[in-house]
């Protein structure tokens, strides 16, 4: 899954299959803001899981 753009924010997911952990890096107008960490099972995180994390972040920060 590639980056997700929403209202000037960019969410770039990355993950490690070996560690079963991932992170979504949050940028606003090119500036790094924070990292959303998560874990998953299987060969890769489900796109729905990443979408839910992005949606929760947007609601929490009123984006």
Q: H/E series, N to C?
A: EEEEH
How far apart are the first and last residues' alpha carbons, in Å?
21 Å
Number of helices: 1
Q: Count the strands?
A: 4
Radius of gyration: 11 Å
Helix content: 10-25%
Across the major sheet, the strand order is 1-2-3-4
The pLDDT mean sits at 95
Beta-strand content estimate: 35-45%
Major beta sheet summary? 4 strands, antiparallel
Low-confidence stretches: none
Overall shape: it is globular
Overall structural class, as computed from helix and strand content, comes to: alpha+beta
Question: Could you describe the 3D structure shown?
Answer:
By secondary structure, the chain is α+β, with helices and mostly antiparallel strands. It is built from 1 helix and 4 strands; from the N terminus they run ββββα. It has one helix spanning 47-60; strands spanning 4-6, 9-16, 21-28, 31-39. Strands 1-2-3-4 form a 4-stranded antiparallel beta sheet, with helices on one face. Strand 3 (21-28) and strand 4 (31-39) form a beta hairpin. The longest helix has 14 residues, at 47-60. It is globular, with a radius of gyration of 11 Å. It starts with a strand and ends with a helix. The model has no long low-confidence stretch (mean pLDDT 95).
């Amino acid at each position: 899954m590639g980056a997700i753009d929403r209202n000037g924010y960019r969410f770039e997911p990355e993950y490690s299959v070996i560690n079963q952990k991932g992170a979504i890096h949050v940028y606003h107008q090119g500036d790094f803001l924070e990292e959303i960490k998560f874990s998953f099972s299987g060969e890769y995180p489900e796109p729905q899981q990443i979408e839910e994390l992005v949606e929760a972040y947007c609601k929490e920060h009123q984006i």
